[in-house]
Amino acid sequence: MWWAPWPATSRRPRAVRLPEEKEEYRVALHSTTESNDPRSTPRRKRLGVIGSFVWDVLHGRDGRSVPIEEWGGITYSLSALDAALPDDWELVPLAKVGDDLVDRARLFCRGLRRMAPDAELIGVPYRNNRVELRYIDDERRSEHLSGGVPGWTWLGLKPVLEAARLDALYINFLSGWELDLETTQLIRAHFHGPIYCDLHMLVMAVQADGLRTPRPLPDMAAWCACFDVLQVNEDELRLMAPDAMALAATAMAAGVSVLGVTLGKRGAAYFAAPGIEKLRDIPERRGHNSSLSTSPRGGAGAFGAVRTALVPAVPARVDGPGDPTGCGDVWGATHFSRLLAGDMLTDAIAAANRAASRNVEHRGASGLAQHLRGELSIT
Question: Are 244 and 269 in contact (CB under 8 A)?
Fold first, then answer.
């Protein structure tokens, strides 16, 4: 197994009209010691999670005249990871939350079974991110962002990452400024384990009134070089390349080994570099940039044809449209969880499709982990 603990790093991303960070924040992970007693419980592997806690205000989701307020953002990913990770893994969220909502975010995390006992969210003196979502139809919506928890700086994130002792890393760009390119390259340079990325809001700009609008992604190949497994949806793909094969070619030349494209009710397509059947087939990274690395890559360093296939969706068991909020987040978190479990690529994607379908049957992120596990939910 090629996962290795990592010291990682970051510096401040450039964000739209965000307040300046005025202080460094304390390390949010309590120090732990591992017993030398051979009878002690084996150390659990640790999955770091980078993304934003977002408070959602939803209009038109299910025909109600009154908007619904609830957790969104990384809470969907955390719920799916909690439901799908193997028993020998635990979650380490690396997240800052505005002081106005940090207690509620901590309460949410305490409801997750796989949360590492030493993990702790960091409260910061800013109004937490909030998003107003107005549904146009089952799969399209507009989003307005307010609030602004700053992204990580290198100086702030470095000690947190060093204390986390991670074996794998999941990144979901839910605000779009959690990390900038240089920060992400530094993480890649210092971390030799697998990195999964859902690009998500990285291809969205924020206008002066908070409206999120699509934008092309500058330095696309440089971003791709930072990740082993990359996730986009159809709309994001169109902003990055003329078609899926063109994006796959760019991503795999940069070092990506698996590209997943979610297709809504049709399921998901994947593109796998030659020789990649499981996560363990991805060679260890040696350097932040594939163009500077001499190590073989599953994508860039292997010969053969790229493998691609469509994995059909599983219909949701719900009357009407259900609730599509967070489906992409649930899909990606489940996909990576099952890859970490050692599943074959197609099996991991099939599990992700099933989880996304189950997500449609549930309202919100509260109780979602229990629902995805097939347990009774109180919501």
Answer: yes
| Six token digits for residue 342 | 């050692």
State the CB neighbour count (10 A cutoff) for residue 44. 17
**pLDDT tens digits, 129-151:** 998 887 766 666 677 888 889 99
User: CA 89 → CA 37, 257, 349, distances in Å?
Assistant: 20, 23, 19
Instruction: Label residue 21 by pLDDT band (50, 70, 90).
Output: very low
Domains of the chain as residue ranges with CATH: 45-372 (3.40.1190.20)
Q: Are 225 and 288 contacting, i.e. CB atoms less than 8 angstroms apart?
A: yes
pTM of the model: 0.85
Token couple for 209: 């009134």
Reduced to 3 states, what is the DSSP secondary structure of residue 347?
Answer: helix
Residue carrying structure tokens 């049709």? 266
DSSP string, 115-145: B-TT---EEESSPPPEEEEEESSSS-EEEEE
DSSP 3-state of 73: strand
Specify the DSSP class assigned to residue 274: T
